[in-house]
């Protein structure tokens, strides 16, 4: 099958549907029934700790790995029986996977060559016998040069990958993916080999690229900041399942699971073990929350939801251990009486007003919006009504 | 830094380098110098007097029919063995690399001829190729080739030795190619699969073959040198015969040096052999090197 794609810049975006994807490696169950609908043109990030199955899921979409059960549909077409090259997706690898023996131009041209020329027309020596090869190669090189222009690689077309910087290699890998105008881009931790400064820069570039191309991006990362800053929606995975799928704000503001709460946000959410009274009431940091019933719960408080106050009954007492000046804001590290660590985030102005000294006991109140309650199974528990604590 | 201190450091540095340099001198350079010196004399092993003869030995060499024939035979042998050694080794490595559970077995099996000394294995070959008793000859008869005496037919003997040489070297090259294959990042095959490489030849041409460049260069050079130095099969199986059809460079050199004791003449021959080997290696490295190293 030849895919003759016209070099127009109209958006080609396909939706992806995953149904019941299961993957075993021997006795290990890496993916445990994943359902996911990715909208056309969406920037969807699969994020999670290493070993959660996110890369395997991406590789199953690409066709590099066969699922043990379940089905993948790309642009309304079932691709389960199709090889990677016919799934109309391009992939950017963590290592970039550029051909080291080829120039930048040849690397970018590679997908077009493989699609538009027959094996015979690519064979060493014999290829020169093909009458249509020169014309096809001219067309391909025109497209490659246009692509290089878009990615600021014009001056580097004759270089080998080894002669490029990390950021340049990254752009060549993008060029190779973009040149054949796939319906979806699959990216496997593409920024993790770059230094911190370049990574921040490339985040912006990738987000802009997505906006410009209008194509569907499926992006795998273990970095929650990348997930939060670039994505339309984020699927947070753990132990082979999607724990929560939602916009970055939804994941941050209403984490469905304690793992989600812990994973999203930096510094991470403060988690404290609490006991609800017989009536299901939990008193914590100046708040009274009504849980569905008595028993043990985990309460999560975002660092920015904690505020310093004067000593008062019902407030959370914690001894200040360390204070970090981040310029615009301060990060305080404290320890509760039970020995649980607490992070408190505040503006520089708040910090100046509070004059918190190391070793001093802080009295902390929490604002309701940054407080989440999780049951013994780790799932979010709806807090029915919050009653103000008696002063 | 002051001048005396610099001198002291230089002296210390030289002192550290001295042992290694002395060893290189004694073990590598001195024998080579002795060889060059011998090659311009008429020295015979055990002789009391030695006379400088200048380049007479070299002049004699190039007039010597036996030497010229051995040179021709050696080049023929190399030309026959080299492609088989490189592409045979690569082919076997590709097949073995794809095995999972049986890979260890094949690796050992193919490597056995490398570990077995050729002199010992030559007796097996002698039996196998025996005109009346050997299974190979029986097979050829059964296939309708009539009575073929592979080792005693002047038109076949060199080719037969080349096949035995190939039999021995393929396993070694396979191991080198296997190492090369294992070092190719899997990512590249995956990138090629997404780019549109669907068939084996596509993957081979786009990824495997170019990525094996450095290995191929190494295998080509070592195989050339091994083939150039063919000796043991000649001594054990044919003694240069029949009609000198298997006289190779090293065998003739051995005859001159250790049978006829014309040490000076043999030294000149050795110099020529060395010159060929060095020249070939440089040539191959020069030509291929530019195309195989990407970093």
From TrEMBL, chain A:
Pfam family for this entry, one: ABC_tran
Keyword vocabulary terms for this entry: ATP-binding, Nucleotide-binding, Sugar transport, Transport
UniProt-listed GO biological process terms: carbohydrate transport
Domain ABC transporter positions: 16-264
Source taxon at top rank: Bacteria
InterPro entries membership: AAA+_ATPase, ABC_transporter-like_ATP-bd, ABC_transporter-like_CS, ABC_transpr_MalK-like, ABC_transpr_MalK/UgpC-like, Mo/tungstate-bd_C_term_dom, P-loop_NTPase, Transp-assoc_OB_typ2
SMART domains xrefs: AAA (SM00382)
GO annotation, cellular component aspect: ATP-binding cassette (ABC) transporter complex, substrate-binding subunit-containing
MF terms (GO), sorted A to Z: ABC-type transporter activity; ATP binding; ATP hydrolysis activity
Family: Belongs to the ABC transporter superfamily.
Name used for this protein in its record: Multiple sugar transport system ATP-binding protein
Organism of provenance: Neoroseomonas alkaliterrae
TrEMBL record, chain B:
Family annotation (Pfam families): BPD_transp_1 (PF00528)
Family from the record: Belongs to the binding-protein-dependent transport system permease family.
Gene Ontology cellular component annotations, sorted alphabetically: plasma membrane
Keyword Lipid biosynthesis recorded: no
Record keyword Transferase present: no
Coiled-coil regions listed in the entry: none
Cellular compartments annotated: Cell membrane
Chief site of localization: membrane
Keywords: Cell membrane, Membrane, Sugar transport, Transmembrane, Transmembrane helix, Transport
Membrane topology: Multi-pass membrane protein
Domain ABC transmembrane type-1 as annotated: residue spans: 71-284
Transmembrane feature ranges: 12-38, 75-96, 108-128, 156-184, 204-228, 264-283
InterPro entries membership: ABC_transporter_permease (IPR051393), MetI-like (IPR000515), MetI-like_sf (IPR035906)
Identification of the protein by name: Multiple sugar transport system permease protein
Domain of life: Bacteria
UniProt-listed GO biological process terms: transmembrane transport
């Amino acid at each position: 099958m030849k895919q003759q794609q016209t070099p127009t810049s109209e958006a080609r975006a396909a939706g992806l549907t995953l149904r019941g994807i299961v993957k075993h490696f021997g006795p290990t169950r890496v993916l445990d029934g994943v359902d996911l609908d990715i909208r056309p043109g969406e920037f969807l990030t699969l994020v999670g700790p290493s070993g959660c199955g996110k890369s395997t899921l991406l590789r199953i979409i690409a066709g590099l790995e066969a699922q043990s059960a379940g089905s993948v549909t790309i642009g309304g077409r079932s691709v389960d029986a199709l090889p990677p090259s016919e799934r109309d997706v391009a992939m950017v690898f963590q290592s970039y996977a550029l051909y080291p023996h080829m120039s930048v131009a040849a690397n970018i041209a590679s997908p077009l060559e493989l699609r538009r020329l027959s094996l015979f027309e690519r064979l060493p020596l014999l290829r020169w016998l093909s009458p249509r090869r020169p014309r096809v190669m001219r067309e391909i090189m025109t497209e490659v040069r246009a692509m290089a222009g878009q990615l600021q690689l014009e001056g580097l077309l004759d270089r080998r990958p080894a002669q490029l910087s990390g950021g340049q290699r990254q752009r060549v890998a993008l060029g190779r993916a973009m040149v054949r105008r796939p319906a979806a881009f699959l990216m496997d931790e593409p920024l993790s080999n770059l230094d911190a400064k370049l990574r921040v820069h490339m985040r912006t570039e990738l987000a802009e690229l997505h906006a410009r191309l209008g194509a569907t991006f499926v992006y795998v990362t273990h970095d929650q900041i990348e997930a939060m800053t670039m994505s339309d929606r984020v699927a947070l995975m753990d132990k082979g399942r999607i724990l929560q799928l939602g916009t970055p704000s939804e994941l941050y503001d209403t984490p469905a699971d304690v793992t989600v709460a812990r994973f999203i946000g930096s510094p991470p959410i403060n988690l404290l073990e609490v006991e609800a009274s017989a009536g299901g009431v939990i008193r914590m940091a100046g708040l009274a929350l009504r849980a569905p019933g008595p028993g043990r719960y985990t309460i999560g408080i975002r660092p920015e939801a904690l505020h310093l106050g004067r000593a008062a009954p019902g407030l959370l007492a914690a001894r200040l251990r360390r204070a970090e000046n981040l310029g615009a804001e301060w990060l305080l590290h404290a320890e509760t009486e039970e020995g649980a660590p607490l992070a408190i985030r505040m503006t520089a102005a708040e910090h100046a007003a509070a004059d918190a000294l190391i070793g001093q006991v802080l009295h902390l109140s929490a604002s309701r919006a940054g407080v989440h309650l999780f049951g013994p199974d780790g799932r979010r528990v709806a807090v029915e009504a919050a009653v103000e604590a008696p002063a | 830094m002051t001048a005396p201190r610099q001198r002291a450091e230089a002296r210390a540095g030289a002192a550290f380098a001295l042992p290694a340099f002395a060893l290189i001198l004694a073990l590598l350079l001195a024998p080579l110098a002795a060889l060059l010196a011998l090659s311009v004399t008429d020295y015979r092993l055990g002789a009391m007097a030695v006379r400088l003869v200048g380049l007479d030995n070299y002049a004699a060499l190039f007039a010597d029919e036996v030497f010229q024939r051995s040179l021709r035979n050696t080049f023929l042998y190399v030309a026959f063995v080299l492609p088989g050694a490189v592409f045979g080794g690569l082919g076997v490595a590709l097949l073995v690399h794809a095995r999972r559970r049986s890979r260890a077995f094949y690796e050992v099996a193919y490597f056995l001829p490398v570990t077995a000394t050729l002199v010992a294995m030559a007796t097996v070959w002698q039996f196998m190729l025996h005109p009346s008793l050997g299974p190979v000859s029986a097979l050829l008869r059964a296939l309708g080739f009539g009575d073929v005496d592979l080792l005693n037919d002047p038109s076949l003997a060199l080719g037969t030795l080349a096949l035995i040489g190939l039999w021995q070297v393929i396993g070694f090259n396979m191991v080198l190619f296997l190492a090369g294959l294992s070092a190719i990042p899997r990512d590249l095959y995956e990138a090629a699969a997404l780019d549109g490489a669907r068939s084996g030849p596509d993957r081979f041409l786009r990824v495997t073959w170019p990525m094996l460049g450095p290995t191929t260069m190494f295998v080509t050079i070592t195989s050339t040198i091994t083939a150039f130095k063919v000796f043991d099969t000649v001594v054990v199986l044919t003694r240069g015969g029949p009609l000198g059809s298997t006289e190779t460079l090293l065998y003739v050199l051995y005859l001159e040096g250790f049978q006829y004791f014309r040490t000076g003449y043999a030294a000149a021959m050795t110099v020529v052999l060395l010159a060929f080997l060095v020249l070939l290696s440089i040539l191959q490295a020069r030509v291929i090197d530019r195309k195989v190293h990407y970093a």
